[in-house]
Design goal:
Elements: E1 3-7, H1 12-16, H2 19-28, E2 33-39, E3 54-58, H3 66-71, E4 76-79, H4 84-93, E5 97-98, H5 104-113, H6 123-130, E6 167-170, H7 182-190, E7 196-199, H8 205-212, E8 220-222, H9 229-237, E9 241-244, H10 248-255, E10 260-264, E11 284-288, H11 311-314
Parallel strand pairs: 1-2, 1-4, 2-3, 4-5, 6-7, 6-9, 7-8, 9-10, 10-11
Length: 331
């Protein structure tokens, strides 16, 4: 094969979860061009990936990019999004394609009736199963993230007391029911053994300010809304621990093989998107409330708790979140 096109339109974490496929394909077929199609706002996630030949992207419509894709004469499409838009790309290009089972029925059964028929297998491993006809196998090296050399010095912009060693609190989340509440952040901040860097976008800037306005000013540095994604990734790369919800930054932390404490709200690790650390699973501490009959209430999330109590997050005992931190982390 001369050219392969991988499709994943969004979002941050979902795209990071496709990186083992990119790497293994390139190593298996070193002379093959590996192309990737995604939305423009997510193309920066892959811009420094050395295994990719070209990143194709669009803003609003596939019409922006389809003419160019037709000219590329791809030998194979690997559809890792599997929706109407990706099916349209396959139809327009008219070449052989491979995809995977999204297990929508199984997810629906778990959400609607709490019947769990999902395989006990991470999504990354399911990707490899679906592509076995290509003769590729999972190299078990985990996820990749390349933030770029220009972002490597981001840590130099932190206050002096944060440069030695720090913990990242990843405040972001696409949906309210996947976000860690303010009360839990404060509870954890007061017990943190290290200074804390708060990461998130403009949406989280106010929450970051609210956290730092507590009697924690010397403990917390609010970087929300001030950094690019790759700059945030650079800070995650140097962190001793990353505390996060079910977010894209969680998967970036896994790509850097960091210690991760992940707190789960309405979604569940059983969906197959927990921190992927095949060689060091002990670095991942998953905290979830397994005693709620209403959980999971969605495979994605909601803007508010359907039951109005948000107990999936509010009842979490966060007292052991920092148990992974040891003396060697105080470098």
């Amino acid at each position: 094969m001369k050219k392969i096109l991988i499709i994943r339109f969004s979002s941050i974490g979902d795209i990071v979860l496709t990186t083992p496929i990119i790497r293994v394909l390139k190593n298996k077929f070193p002379k093959t061009e590996i192309h990737y199609l995604t939305k423009s706002k997510f193309s920066g996630i892959l811009e420094h990936n050395p295994y990719l030949t070209t990143i194709h992207h669009y803003d609003k419509s596939l019409k922006e990019v389809l003419p160019l894709l037709k000219q590329k004469d791809f030998d194979l499409i690997i559809d890792l999004h599997k929706n109407i838009r990706s099916a349209l790309v396959q139809k327009r290009l008219g070449v052989k394609s491979l995809s995977f089972d999204k297990l929508n029925l199984e997810k629906w059964l778990l959400v609607r009736f709490k019947i769990n028929r999902l395989p006990k297998k991470h999504l990354v491993d399911r990707y490899f199963d679906a592509l076995s006809s290509l003769g590729i196998e999972n190299d078990q090296l985990g996820l990749d993230y390349f933030e770029g050399k220009d972002n490597a010095n981001t840590i130099d912009n932190l206050p002096k007391e944060f440069k030695k060693s720090y913990i990242v609190f990843a405040l972001a989340g696409t949906y309210f029911t996947k976000k860690i509440p303010f009360e839990k952040w404060i509870e954890m901040a007061k017990n943190s053994p290290l200074p804390i860097v708060l990461l998130g976008g403009n949406t989280e800037r106010e929450l970051g300010l609210k956290i730092t306005n507590e009697p924690l000013q010397e403990l917390c540095y609010n970087a929300c809304g001030t950094l690019t994604l790759n700059q945030s990734a650079a800070l995650i790369k140097s962190a001793s621990l990353v505390v996060t919800g079910d977010t894209g930054l969680m998967h970036i932390a896994a790509a850097y093989k960091k210690k991760i404490a992940s707190l789960w709200g309405n979604t569940v690790p059983d969906f197959g998107m927990y921190p992927y650390l095949p060689q060091s699973p002990e670095k991942s501490y998953v905290l979830e409330n397994k005693d709620l009959s209403c959980r999971p209430c969605s495979k994605l999330g909601f803007d508010s708790c359907p039951k109005k109590h948000f107990n999936c997050m509010m009842q979490l005992d966060v007292s052991n979140v920092f148990h992974q931190i040891s003396e060697k982390d105080f470098r």
